[in-house]
Write a structure and sequence with these properties.
Glutamyl-tRNA Synthetase, domain 2, ATP binding, alpha/beta, Rossmann fold, 3-stranded antiparallel beta sheet, EC 6.1.1.17
């Protein structure tokens, strides 16, 4: 059987770096196994799901380098979900419940006061047909629960029932079904919660492995029971540790925290985002991988820590900066062209400035400085103007070689007696309008003698 994994976001907001971590774990696992990767939109919540968010998620994944083999939408598969629900009802494994949220909360508190686990007591199973009819005549609509197989003969006498699996991230795991309430699969309005459509779609698309956040570990026990109730082979499960903000707060799509779209709009490199999303919280070092293939080679799901990992945006910026500064011209030529950086100067220009920028878009500022003149960031100190004018009078004649900066500054040093910072800083400000930047020995040939003289104060 072909190894098949999926990423199943709800299109109710923008995905953040924590969601991207899950997507990348599944994508890389599929790639390493030579398998398939499915993007499945869990869009059964019609009130909050939008096609706009779905399109943005596709765009975010494409930017990260994730290419699905198939894209499906749960909203197109309602018939399959209905058939599964009917099958479970027929087997007596899906039963109607009429309690209000207030009634359920009151029962939960009573159980806690009696030092009992706060699980649903299956009171609805005791209702007669006449009871259900009366409740519906009163205007109540049922929600439907899946009857967990945690008893021998009497569902009102649950007993310890261990569900075990060998987690591809965490190793051997055990969940006791008796510690859980029967999960609600269908709401009062007839719409499905996450669990049933997810399991049905995993079965129909032949998903072999499911990797997700470790906040789903307990849910996995109930879902394994549901797979078995539907007569399906149970996939392998994996649960990676979660990412939090540096404050320790969980990430949220609704808050837009660290969304992939915002990271893209900030000009960060996609492989920096992907590298940090995958490698953070693992046993090895976090390094910026230059390609998805390189990240695939580093990827080892079982190396993930069991504790949450704090995501630091500053670390992401550092990784992105490293990637930018290491990029050869061929890798950025198209992006530079989109910024208007073209022609014979483009390659030596990139080689001159790449070590001094954080984002490729920053190259545009230096291109303006080279082509049009100094920026106005730092004015030349009046005390240095006479020195700079004298220095410009000492410019070597053409042709200029790669040694022109050394030749020029040697002359200036001899004639003026200045050296070190007192010599170099005023010249840098006069040429670029900045106190820092690329090596002037690299910039000077790009400016040319005429272009350099044009900057004489």
């Amino acid at each position: 059987m072909t190894v098949t994994l999926r990423f199943a976001p709800s299109p109710t907001g923008r995905i953040h770096i924590g969601n991207a971590r899950t997507a990348l774990f599944n994508w890389l696992f599929a790639r390493k196994a030579g398998g398939r990767f499915i993007l499945r939109f869990d869009d059964t919540d019609s009130a909050r799901s939008t096609r706009e968010f779905a399109d943005e998620i596709e765009r975010d994944l494409e930017w990260l380098g994730i290419e699905p083999d198939e894209i499906i939408r749960q909203s197109d598969r309602t018939d399959a979900h209905d058939r599964a629900a009917a099958f479970l009802r027929e087997k007596g494994l899906l039963y109607p419940c009429y309690e209000t949220p207030e009634e359920l909360e009151r029962r939960r508190k009573i159980r806690l006061s009696r030092r009992l686990p706060p699980v649903y007591g299956r009171e609805a199973l005791k209702l007669s047909e006449a009871d259900r009819k009366r409740l519906e005549e009163e205007g109540r609509s049922p929600h439907w629960r899946f009857l967990l197989p945690n008893f021998k003969d009497d569902p009102h006498q649950p007993e310890r029932t261990d569900v075990t699996w060998d987690d591809v991230v965490r190793g051997p795991q055990t969940v006791d079904l008796a510690s859980m309430s029967d999960p609600v699969l269908i709401r009062e309005d007839g719409t499905y919660l996450y669990t049933l459509p997810s399991v049905v779609d995993d079965i129909d698309t032949k998903v072999t492995h499911i990797i997700r956040g470790d906040d789903h570990v307990t849910n996995t026990g109930a879902q394994i029971a549901l797979f078995e109730a539907l007569g399906a082979q149970v996939p392998a499960f994996g649960h990676h540790n979660l990412l939090t903000a540096t404050s320790g707060e969980g990430l949220s799509k609704r808050k837009g925290a660290l969304s992939i779209a915002s990271l893209r709009e900030d000009g960060l490199e996609p492989m920096a985002v992907a590298s940090l999303a995958v490698l953070i919280g693992a046993s090895g070092s976090v390094e910026a991988c230059s390609s998805m293939k390189a990240l695939e080679e580093r990827f080892e799901p079982s190396a993930s820590s069991r504790s949450a990992a704090k995501f630091d945006p500053e670390e992401l910026r550092m990784l992105s900066r490293q990637l930018v500064q290491q990029k050869p011209f061929d890798a950025v030529e198209q992006r530079l062209a989109e910024l208007g950086i073209t022609g014979a100067k483009a390659k030596p220009f990139w080689q001159a400035i790449c070590g001094n920028i954080e984002k490729i878009e920053d190259a545009a500022e230096w291109w303006v400085i080279v082509e049009q003149g100094p920026s106005e960031d730092t004015p030349l100190d009046k005390a240095d103007q006479d020195f700079v004018r004298q220095a410009f009078d000492l410019l070597p004649e053409e042709p200029w070689t790669e040694n022109v900066w050394k030749e020029w500054t040697s002359r200036v040093k001899t004639e003026t007696g200045r050296k070190g910072k007192q010599l170099f800083k005023p010249l840098r400000i006069a040429l670029t309008g900045r106190e820092w930047g690329p090596e002037l020995s690299d910039l000077l040939p790009l400016l040319g003698r005429e272009g350099t003289l044009a900057r004489r104060p």
